[in-house]
Amino acid sequence: MRYTKKTFAELKDVIEKRGKGITVVIGNQKGGVGKTANATIMSYILAKHGIKTLVVDLDPQANASETLVHTMSRNSEDGRIPAIKKTILLGISEGDLTDLPVKIMDNLYLLPSYIDFEGFTEYLYEHTNNEYERNHFLKPLLDPLKEDYDVIILDMPPLMREIRDNAVVLSDYVLIVLQTQEHALVGAKRYIKKLIELRHKYDLPVDLLGVIGVLNNRRGRVDKIVLDEAKRDIGEDLVFETVVPNMERIKRFPIQGVGEDDRFDTQVLDVYRKITTEFAKRLTEAETRE
């Protein structure tokens, strides 16, 4: 996929006609496959192209929050750190998340997570009466945010079923991140199976947007085999054209934030401009498909 600014302008037009933001959950049943890296870097690219983007961190480990807080510091003149008004769990208990988002930079915002979000599952069971209520609990809290943002990206933990099911229920699209190892492919297929189950169970409009491949080894035979299996089992048209190569610099972004200070940063962001271009193109096509 060739990087082009026109694709982002077309997505912006579609969202304006739509009248509310698009919500995308990034998922895989397996952890450590690159979900957070893709969520944060793609959001940075979207913001740079005028797409007002909100990252919702639903992981108690708060890795996306840490990366974006460092991004804020790196891209500001004074290196400031945002003032946190309240935790996400407190916002949930108060029934309002609209005042939680923190501005990271122009067009990029974060709804941050905290360690206390580990208590969400217990809170959920205490305040619901059945499975339907549990799986739809976050939707009325996050839906109002669609009025303020063009794209909302949900970053979530791999093994918290209650968060996974809530994220699928409230999202418009699911984006799978697939590291090129067999366990990650199994996790991707399990996630897609659950997506299909929830879509049928609750008659949801949510759909699978695509699969982003993340290579363990640029020239690895296993990597090619796993990508070929994904194209065969999930669908060749669903696997993104551009894959993420194994780049050491990506590992530094959680420590120093996303930015473009040297050629190594640029190399990473050049790859993600292509990936995010395809992401924007797929969203535009999905939203305009009759």
UniProtKB/TrEMBL annotation:
Pfam families cross-referenced by the UniProt entry: AAA_31
Record's keyword terms, sorted: Plasmid
Entry keyword Nucleotidyltransferase: no
InterPro entries, A to Z: AAA_dom, DNA_Partitioning_ATPase, P-loop_NTPase
UniProt key word Transferase: no
Lineage: superkingdom: Bacteria
Domain AAA, residue spans: 23-201
Signal peptide positions (record): none
Gene3D superfamilies: P-loop containing nucleotide triphosphate hydrolases
PANTHER family: COBYRINIC ACID AC-DIAMIDE SYNTHASE (PTHR13696:SF99), P-LOOP CONTAINING NUCLEOSIDE TRIPHOSPHATE HYDROLASE (PTHR13696)
The protein's name in its UniProt record: Replication partioning protein
Organism encoding this protein: Ligilactobacillus salivarius
